[in-house]
Amino acid sequence: MGKTFQRPESLTEVDTHYCPGCTHGIAHRLIAEVIDELGIVGRTVGIAPVGCAVLAYNYFTFDFQEAAHGRAPAMATGIKRVRPDLMVFTYQGDGDLASIGMGEIIHAANRGEKFTTIFINNAVYGMTGGQMAPTTMPGQRTTTSPLGRDVNDVGMPIQMAELLSSLKTPAYITRQTIIKPKYVVKAKKAIKTAFEYQLEGRCFSFVELVSTCPTNWGLTPVEAVKWAEETLLPYYRLGEFKNPGHAEGRGGSDAK
Amino acid sequence: MGKILMKGNEAIGEAAIRAGCLNYFAYPITPQSEVAEYLSHRLPEIGGVFLQGESEVAVGYMLFGAAGCGARVFTTSSSPGVSLMSEAISYLAGAQLPAVFVNIMRGGPGLGGILPSQGDYFQATKGGGHGDYHLLVMAPASVQEAAEMVMRAFPLAEKYRNPVMILGDGLIGQMMEPVEFPEHLKSEPSNKDAWATNGMGTRQSGKRNLVKSLFLDALELNNNNLVLKEKYTRMKREEIRYEKYNMDSDYRMFIVSFGTMSRVCRTAIDSLKEEGIEVGMIRPQTLFPFPEEAVFAAASKSGCTMALSIEMNMGQMVEDVERCVHGKCPVEWFGKCGGEVPTPEEIMDVVKGFLAQSR
Questions:
Q1: pTM (predicted TM-score)
Q2: What pLDDT digit, counting tens, does each position of A198-212 carry?
Q3: Which residue among A152, B55, B95, B126 is least packed, with the fewest CB closer than 10 Å?
Q4: Is B212 at the interface with chain A, CB within 8 A?
């Protein structure tokens, strides 16, 4: 009987620096598994963000570039335009992508750049120490919203999957989560679909992963999962928002 | 191939193609938008990449991504746009990536104006972005020289794995002059497989490459910056270029001037000569590395009583001239900005005025 479970070959054997209960490790593993399954490690280039995943390149075995804060989609554009044969993905958090990098992601998506963005949404700035993000929930306490996010003052949290889906350019846009095992299989399938669309040269692909940050939420890992399920998932609805193979407007279709 | 009449901005675009650079990302800004307009039809017809980015910020990182996977790449912009690109330029320098930036300068600070200026001397030669880095900076004084410098910029960027900047002004970009493109310059054999993220499956070594400017460990960052410093020292040894004008005369004063401004100074020097007044000129063609020894030698010549830096700004290069003259003679500055280029007659009056004072 052969091996049934092993570390993906695209992951290094380095221990990650992520906190207990953080879901970055799961996201990394899913990406690595998909790259292994597609047999594309030799032509994959990852782009690490500024944020907790700034050192993501230490955990993958393939080529990597490290971006400035928010600029990964512009770098991915540069790579794909001159080397369309490479498989390129950006790995970005919500401060990186939805705040400082909003311009880059919107325009890359609108041009239909043929790369994939893995968007880790945990409703808070992680690496800088738990400040308010554009994705922070109303009333959510952070180090820069100590009384809770006041939507009259700073507006409502940005729903990136919905926002990008409003662009008319064809794309694959989905929101999944990795906070419980029952969601993980679907998340992996979404990542695989995204990479496959890229390999076919079909469209821009965007996989939002609702994630946890127990440390900056001030919760235990178990409490964090509960909070994410009760607070984030009703607002950040799961499902496929856009698929070049389907008709538009299926947003949040499998959110139940 | 013979000479053809071309606008500076178009010649810059054509020169890049002839240097083997088929990848161009840019954002429109006056007075250099003709480069993008020219390349928007020229590059697709030869299978190159033309992309108008959403901002100069993004364009800087498109260059980073493309350069990071080993492609020859360039952009053109003008002063406010280069400010926005300066973040990426710092990252490119930190990650040791080759790329070529052309700045067709306009007046500043702020939105400034759209007329020619040399107001970005500090930005180009002393940083612009954050951190310990330098660009190799070349300053053309004609359309011909702009074309030649663009063509030389690519092999130099690759030799040093460092961004190179062509610092022109609005006149260089907008003026039409005859230009003859030089033969394709040979590059040193590429070692990009050693560092570029071009897909590890394509490389003999089978090792992955990492393109980054992040070095969290103090010693590691110090060591990276020592590598950069060594490159800048090597540039100072190997890449300084300048032109002398009337420096064999018994000058009492020598001018230091670059780009468009130096051409006006040349006319003034010729007219002064006719009046029996000898003035020399050093025209730096590289602003970094700066022709330090040439300026010092010029100031050290017996009979020299003054150095005069003439610039289309409020006095920037004059600080380098002062540094290099090293107290051998007084250093004065004359200049104008806002797009007004000093005339030969004005320069003659200024020269005479300073010489009268120093008598």
A1: 0.96
A2: 999 999 999 999 999
A3: A152
A4: yes
